[in-house]
Structure formats: structure tokens, C-alpha cells
């Protein structure tokens, strides 16, 4: 399935617009990852563990959105928007949400 942030897919005109589709994933950060991330923050550098969690959450949210599009008969999603939010007590959770328009191309 093609998912794109653009409003259309070059060379593949939409035959039908099927509606808005979404995907949401909420992940918690565990204590050990928090400790190592805070050390990384102090000494500098990138936090590989958080990056892994963020990448996994993004992939899962996109997959959920694409699955919803397929259920509507779509084979692509256009106008995809990704959002990231920190939620929960003391910002202990990360929410990745995406939305777009399911289309048949």
C-alpha cells in the first residue's frame, strides 16, 4: 500500500476517495530506558532506545491506518499527517497518531 504526505500520487489518479483513516499508538517508557536516556541527556548524544521506541510506534500507527484503508477498499492513503504527543503523568507516555485519506488508485 502506498502512503504519502502529498495530496495525490503522481501518475496514479484517485478513482475513488473512501474517507479519512487513522492510526494511533501509545507507548510507555520504562524505568531503565528513562535512566539511560537521562544519562545520555547529561553527557550528550542521541538516545538510541527512545529512537527505537519512536520508530516502532510510528510504524505501528501507519500500519493501523493502512489496515483501516484496506478495509474500506483502498490501496493507498494520501495526505498523511503524523503527530507526536507526550501524555500521561509526568509525560511518561508517547502517543503517535496519523491520519490521511484512503483512496483507490
For the record, give the distance between the C-alpha atoms at the N and C termini, rounded to a whole number: 10 Å
Assembly category: single chain
Q: Summarize the helix and strand pattern as letters.
A: EEHHEE
Q: Hey, roughly how much beta strand do the residues contain?
A: 35-45%
Whole-angstrom Rg: 17 Å
Cross-sheet strand order for the largest sheet: 1-3-4-2
Task: State the name of the first-level CATH class.
Answer: Alpha Beta
Number of strands: 4
The CATH superfamily turns out to be: Hypothetical protein apc22750. Chain B
Number of structurally distinct domains:
1
Helix content: 25-40%
Unreliable stretches covering 5 or more consecutive residues: none
CATH domain topology: Translation Initiation Factor IF3
Brief description of this entry?
This is UPF0145 protein FHS75_001068. This protein has 105 residues and is α+β, with helices and mostly antiparallel strands.
What would you say this structure looks like, in words?
- The protein is α+β, with helices and mostly antiparallel strands.
- The protein has one domain: Hypothetical protein apc22750. Chain B (Translation Initiation Factor IF3, 2-Layer Sandwich).
- The protein is 35% helix and 37% strand.
- The chain contains two helices and four strands, in the order ββααββ.
- It has a four-stranded mixed sheet.
- The chain is elongated.
- The model has no long low-confidence stretch (mean pLDDT 85).
